[in-house]
Amino acid sequence: MLALFILIIFGLGLAYFATQNTGIVHILFGSYVLAGVPLYLIVIGSMLFGIFVSWLISMVDSVSSFMVLYGKDAALKRSQSVIDKLKKENAALSKELEDLKEEVTDENKAIKDEFTKQNSDFLQHIHQSIA
Fold first, then answer.
1. What integer is the mean pLDDT of 4-33?
2. Is the pLDDT assigned to residue 114 strictly greater than 80?
3. With helix as H, strand as E and coil as C, how does 7-64 read?
4. Nearest to 14 by CA among 54, 45, 50
5. Distance, CA of 75 to CA of 78 (rounded, Å)
6. What is the distance between the alpha carbons of residues 116 and 52, in angstroms, rounded to a whole number?
7. Residue 31 — φ and ψ, nearest 5°?
8. Which burial class, exposed, middle or buried, applies to 47 when counting CB atoms under 10 A from its CB (0-12, 13-18, 19+)?
9. What angle do CA 124, 127, 131 make, to 5 degrees?
10. Where are the beta strands (DSSP E) in the chain?
11. What is the C-alpha separation between 79 and 84, in angstroms, rounded?
């Protein structure tokens, strides 16, 4: 509704402008002459041409923005795949670390048991020697 209201106001302004600028002008394109053109048509045509050119520039800007965003999306997907790969590698390394800790703990327990056995054997040997 607001757009319709603005369009009506704009149309009324153009109509008023056209009634005030009814003078006839001649347009020269090199040796070609366009005679008897009302001034308001020149002004309105220039304005419409300017709007068209600015629309074209805006479209080029939109396409370039789309290409930049597409490149960023592709880079983001590549980064996400690297992150996923590193997470998997981290999980594998964490599991390997836990396995190694368990292995070291088992080895330490075996060494401790062997040391305890050797000490008790030594103590029993001394005890038997004394007795």
1. 85
2. no
3. HHHHHHHHHHHHHHCCCEEEEEECCEEEEEEEHHHHHHHHHHHHHHHHHHHHHHHHHH
4. 45
5. 5
6. 94
7. -95, -5
8. exposed
9. 140
10. 24-29, 32-38
11. 9
Residue 59 in tokens: 């479209």
Q: CB-hemisphere CA count at 13 Å for 15?
A: 6
pLDDT, tens digit, 9 for 90 and up, residues 45-77 = 888 899 999 999 999 999 999 999 988 989 999
pTM over 0.70: no
CA-only gyration radius of the chain, Å? 45
Site of tokens 């088992």: 106
Phi-psi bin for 115: left (phi > 0), alpha (psi -120 to 50), beta? Answer: alpha
CA atoms within 13 A on the CB side of 128: 6
Residue 109 CA to residue 60 CA, distance in Å, equals 73
